[in-house]
Amino acid sequence: MEYMIGVDIGTTSTKSVLYDMEGKVIAYANSGYQLYQDVPDMAEEDPDDIFDAVVEVLGQVIRKGKIKRGELKGISFSSAMHSLILMDKDDQPLTRAITWADNRAAKYSEELKENGLGAEIYAKTGTPIHPMAPLSKILWIKNEKPELFAQTKKFIDLKTYIFFRLFGVYKMEYSIASATGMFNIFKLAWEPQALELLGITTDQLPELVEPTDTITGLNPKYGKLLGISKNIPFVFGASDGVLSNLGVDAIDPGVVAVTIGTSGAVRVVVDKPVVDPDGHLFCYALTKDKWVVGGPVNNGGIVFRWVKDQLFAPEKITAEQMQVSTYDILTQIAEKIPAGSDGLLFHPYLGGERAPIWNAYARGSFFGLTRKHTRAHMVRAALEGIVYNLYIVMLTIERVTGKPKSIQATGGFARSALWRQMLADIFEQDVTIPESFESSCLGAAVLGMYALGYVDDLSAVKGMVGVTDVHKPNEKNFEVYRELLPIWIRLSQVLEPEYKSIAEFQKKHMK
C-alpha cells in the first residue's frame, strides 16, 4: 500500500487525514488549541501549541494507519491564511501568532484606503486592504510597537514557523504569500512598494517557493517521535481556502465553492491572476497556473453559535438532556418559519466584516421587528442573513469572472438540509453537496500526489469526491428572496456610515 497525509492547520484546530492513493480515508486526527483575546480586537494563538498539535495529529494517523516502512510517500500541508509571527535574531518568536481575526490594525487599513496607497498595492497583490492581512498588521506594529518592530529578524506565518521547526529553514509558498498583501501576484515576487511602505527588506521575509515544492531532511528528533524516515518528502502545499476548492472538485472554470464553517467564503478558480477594479475580491494562488478569486466573510457559523448561546439558552439545556445537537433543534424551529422570515432581516456583522463590504467596524442588526416576530423568526432571519451576505459576494465575483455554472457547498452548514435549500433558493441555482471529508486535507493530499508524481493532473480529485445530494431552487421561495434582497442591500448601505461611530462607542464603554 501507498499513502499520503494531508494536514490542515486551521484557526481553531489542526486536522490530519491519512489517505490511500485513491483518496480513501484511512485514519483521521484532530487537535485544538486556545485563542487568546486578552484585549479588545485581539485574536492570537501560541505557535508552539500549534506546532505540538501538528506533531500530535501526524503521530496519531501514522499509528492508527499502522503504516509499514516505505508505505508513506509524502506529507502535504494546508494552512489558514494571514497569520503573522515576529521572530528575533535567535530565531525565537517575539509574538504569538496574530491570526486573520485580529482587528487591531483597523486604523491603518482605513488610512491606506483613504490615501489611495491601498488601492495601488491591492492592484499588484490581489489582497484586499483589511486588518486581516499581514501588510496592515506589520504597519500597526511598526507604528505602535516600534521596539518590537526593531527586534524583528523575520516576519513569517504559521506554516513557515512549522516548517522552520521541522527543517530549520524559512520558506513560504506562493499561496500563503499571495494572502499577505506584500506579494506581487503577477511577478511572483515580494512587492517593493509594499515593503517600502513597511520599511522592511526581502531578507526579513521567507524565501518564496512553489506550492508543489518539497523538502526532506526532517529534524531527527521529530522523525524519531513520529517513526518516519528523514527522507519522507514534505510538500509545502497551499492555503486552506484554495485547497478546499480542490478538495471539493471546484477547480474547473465556473464551478463555485461556497463554504460556511466558523467563517465562510465564495471562491472560483481561474487560469491567471485577476483583480477586482473595486478592490472587493481576493486573488490567491493554488499553483502558479491556477488562481482562486473570491471573497471571505467573517460571519458564518459563528453567528449561528451566537444565536444558540444568547437567544436559545433553554433549548441548550433541553438538547443536553436529550443528548441531541442544539443546532438541530434550532434548525427544526427555523423550518417552521416561511422563507423571508415574515419580513425580518438580519445583517450578520457580529465581528466586523470582510467581503463584501470590507469594513472592520461593521456591526450586526435586526431590521423589521414587529410584535408578530418570535425567536423562531430571529433564528431563521440570522441564517438567511448569512446567505444573503454570501450571495452579494457571489454577485461581485460574477462581475469579474462571469456567471457560475454550478455551486459546490461545503462546511459545517452543509449538514443541514434547511441551509442547503436556503442556499439554492437565494442563489437561484442548483447546489451540489460533495461527499468530500475534510476538503482542505484532501486538497493538500491531492496537491501532494501531484507534486510527487503519483497523479498526472489535479483533476484526479474527481475520482475521489462523490456527491451526496443536489438541491434545486424552490420558485416560491426565491421569488420572496428576490423581493427582500434589494431592501437588505439598501439597508446595509444606509447603515454603513454609522458603523465606525457605534464601534468606537462600544470600544469606549463596553468592558
TrEMBL record:
Gene3D superfamilies: 3.30.420.40. InterPro entries: ATPase_NBD (IPR043129), Carb_kinase_FGGY (IPR000577), Carb_kinase_FGGY_CS (IPR018483), FGGY_C (IPR018485), FGGY_Carb_Kinase (IPR050406), FGGY_N (IPR018484), Gluconate_kinase (IPR006002). Residues 257-452 form the Carbohydrate kinase FGGY C-terminal domain. This is Xylulokinase. Pfam families: FGGY_C, FGGY_N. The gene is xylB. The keyword Transferase applies. It comes from the Bacteria. Keywords: Kinase, Transferase. Belongs to the FGGY kinase family.
